[in-house]
Design brief:
The protein is mostly helical and 245 residues long. It has twelve helices and no strands. Helix 4 packs antiparallel against helix 7 and helix 7 packs across helix 10. The relative contact order is 0.09.
Length: 245
């Protein structure tokens, strides 16, 4: 019988990698704004290199790799058109005969908002895998920490956007920020990422509550104080005494 890391697993992950390479390569041809496309893909290239480098020591589940693949494809579309100009409304109108924005009462191009929500929705579970398997997070912390990490990295990305816009300025800075005149754009992007992560973690908790017999006990144990001793200056004093022994 084939194991989780057997031939089928490798074939599946390789297929996802090849599919993304084809999609990314196709969308790299004649993007709407080549400079913005290059800037948008700096983090993607670094992220993919990190995934490849971690292959020997840490391999995600098929589910996590699939979620990562979907998110990267959405980002590749945004990078090709620039996020503020993805013609999803025109695509929907050609398909359904009416404006998609009009269905929801939107007045702006909201593709960027969808992707920020998808960042939390699609990547919170892979992040949870890291916390479970590396940090040994359990119970409450196995759901809370992925949410916190999602929100923290969303904030870091907004800072990265701000710095890039300040450095490059001009039309490139405006295209990369994609605020479309909304002064609260960064706040809304972070909130949507957090909402996506909340949905993902609630769904994960619901499945685990159904399948995991010790679910409640694990949550209770995760919130129990493991070491009643105070740290800070007390811990420093203990380490000094240990060093002197």
């Amino acid at each position: 019988m084939e194991t989780g890391m057997g031939t089928g697993y490798r074939r599946y992950v390789t297929s996802l990698a090849l599919a993304f390479a084809v999609i990314w390569g196709a969308l790299a041809i004649d993007p709407l704004d080549r400079s913005d496309w290059a800037l948008e893909n700096v983090l993607v290239i670094g992220f993919c290199a990190g995934l490849a480098a971690s292959w020997r020591h840490f391999r995600f589940s098929r589910l996590s790799y699939t979620l990562i693949f979907v998110f990267l494809c959405l980002h590749a579309i945004g990078a090709h058109y620039t996020y503020a100009k993805v013609p999803y409304d025109a695509w929907w109108q050609a398909l359904a005969g009416r404006s998609f924005n009009s269905l929801w009462g939107w007045e702006r191009n909201n593709f960027d908002r969808v992707v920020h929500f998808s960042y939390g929705l699609l990547l919170a579970y892979p992040i949870r895998e890291v916390f479970l398997r590396v940090a040994d997070a359990r119970g409450f912390w196995g759901y809370f920490l992925p949410l916190e990490f999602t929100l923290a990295t969303s904030a870091m990305f907004e800072l990265f956007e701000w710095i890039a816009a300040e450095v490059f300025g001009g039309d490139l800075g405006v295209a990369y920020l994609g605020t479309q005149g909304d002064v609260w754009d960064a706040h809304k992007d972070m909130a949507l990422a957090a909402c996506g992560a909340v949905v993902a973690m609630i769904a994960t908790a619901a499945v685990n509550r159904w399948l995991q017999r010790d679910f409640s006990r694990e949550w209770s144990d995760s919130l129990r104080v493991k070491d009643p001793r105070p740290y800070g200056e007390e811990e420093i004093a203990r380490m000094i005494r240990q060093g002197q022994d």
